[in-house]
Design a protein that fits this description.
The complex is a heterodimer.
Chain A lengths: L1 E6 L3 H12 L4 E4 L25 H14 L3 E3 L3 E6 L4 E5 L3 E9 L3 E3 L7 H4 L4 E2 L2 H4 L7 E5 L3 H11 L4 E5 L9 H9 L3 E4 L3 E6 L6 E6 L2 E6 L2 E4 L3 E3 L29 E3 L11 H20 L1
Parallel strand pairs in A: 1-2, 1-6, 2-3, 6-17, 8-15, 9-10, 9-15, 10-11
Antiparallel strand pairs in A: 4-5, 5-6, 7-16, 12-13, 13-14
Helix pairs in contact in A: 1-2, 1-7, 5-6
Chain B lengths: L3 E2 L5 H6 L5 E6 L4 H16 L4 E6 L4 H6 L7 E6 L2 E7 L4 H9 L1
Parallel strand pairs in B: 1-3, 2-3
Antiparallel strand pairs in B: 2-4, 4-5
Classes of the chains: A alpha/beta, B alpha/beta.
Chain lengths: 299, 103
């Protein structure tokens, strides 16, 4: 039996682990992919205090080492279900199961999918959710970015430097992203805006070859080599814990001390309902959630 | 065992004609998740001798990336008896890599 099990090895979960293990608790971190979470895709971090210019990968790896050196166990397994009774929680993963007196949910978010036929089949075959990972494959080719927020605008600009042509497909007339970015996108010669439009089909044989776009009832087929989906992220909390209170988008609702509606289950990081999702608010949540969990264990 | 650097020239010998299963990782220097995967592969190479690990840098080997239709990285494939039997795109934890090879 662990004192505290932490679901997610991003900045929130690993900070919680530091606070918990330093209070002499037996701590387990369950991470489904790699420590560091989303931040490892960031090439340079400029807004975290006292670490200007650190790469996201270095941040994640340094944090992982710090946590391991302190004696925290990290298992790389995907958590499928958490059930709780009055004094313990059972955490079921794809490989195993674990018991813990308290749980900190720091599972973060994942890219929102289009939910179209063929999307899964074409993932890795023309459909991508990470421009910095896969942009390099489209040198001199034609790509599209789907989305209207800052991430989508950033990706379109990044890809415009690699691909010959970039379609930016957005379901509204105006962009949610910053004015400065919108200006740069509009000024880029090889970015074509496809506004008030929704992607309704992904077409191709074995790999993506074209997309079908709907503008107000009229459909058009656009031939391309790659599609970058950037339509936001969704919290990874759904169906994990029965009875857990979430908002309409699925983010976990918690008190200022990161307590959920279920006694003994705490929440930290991007998966929590809040206004600002940043590295610094994630680590901050981690410390607060761990402290609340320690208080709960002391009761 | 050591990680083998895969190239167009040695791919047939090291991967396709190998009697042991081979885990092939297509990667690039500029891709952060690929860099995060690397220490995991090094650990595996150290611990296991029942399969081989080959890494292919897609910038240095664009022909191989094209031949195997790789357009998202990291992309991990398993070859048995010269045939691709499994493939996953994105960063994978160690346990899942072992499962892919052992299947």
């Amino acid at each position: 039996m662990y004192d505290i099990a932490i679901v997610g090895g991003g900045p929130a979960g690993l900070t919680a682990a530091i606070y918990a293990v330093r209070a002499n608790k037996k701590v387990l971190v369950l991470e489904s992919v790699a420590c560091g979470g989303q931040i490892i895709n960031t090439s340079k971090i400029d807004n975290y205090p006292a670490a200007p210019g650190i790469t996201g990968l270095e941040f994640g790896q340094t944090l992982q080492k710090q946590v391991e050196d302190l004696g925290v166990e990290i298992e790389f397994e995907n958590v499928e279900k958490i059930s709780h009774d009055s004094n313990s929680n059972l955490i079921v993963t794809e490989d195993d199961q674990y018991k813990a007196k308290a749980v900190i949910l720091a599972s973060g978010t994942e890219p929102r999918k289009l939910n179209l036929d063929n999307e899964e089949i074409f993932t890795g075959f023309g459909v991508s959710y990470c421009a910095t990972c896969d942009g390099g494959f489209y040198n001199g080719k034609t790509v599209a970015v789907n989305g209207g927020g800052n991430s989508a605008l950033h990706e379109a600009l990044y890809l415009s430097g690699i691909a010959e042509k970039v379609f930016l497909i957005h379901r509204r007339e105006s962009f949610r992203g910053s004015e400065d970015l919108v200006k740069k996108v509009r000024a880029a010669k090889n970015i074509e805006l496809v506004l008030n439009s929704t992607i309704v089909a992904l077409n191709g044989d074995r790999r993506l070859q074209s997309i079908t776009v709907d503008h107000g009832g009229k459909t058009e087929e656009i031939s391309l080599d790659g599609l970058f989906v950037s339509i936001g992220r969704i919290p990874k909390a759904k169906d994990l814990i029965d009875g857990l209170k979430v908002d309409e988008s699925g983010y976990v609702i918690a008190t200022e001390n990161c307590e959920t509606n279920i006694s003994g289950i705490f929440v930290a990081g991007d998966v929590r309902k809040k206004d600002l999702r940043q590295l610094v608010t994630a680590t901050c949540d981690g410390a607060i959630a761990a402290t609340a969990a320690l208080n709960y264990l002391a009761e | 065992m050591k990680i083998i650097e895969g190239t167009k020239e040695n791919f047939a010998e090291k991967v396709l004609k190998n009697k042991k299963p081979v885990l092939v990782d297509f990667n690039a220097e500029w891709c952060p998740p690929c860099q995060a995967l690397h220490p995991v592969l090094e650990e595996l190479a150290e611990e296991r001798d029942d399969f081989l690990i080959v890494t292919v840098d897609i910038d240095e080997n664009p022909d191989l990336a094209e031949e195997y239709e790789v357009s998202s990285i990291p992309c991990v494939m398993v070859f048995k008896d010269g045939k691709e039997v499994d493939r996953r795109v994105g960063l994978q934890p160690k346990k899942r890599l072992i499962k892919m090879v052992s299947k």
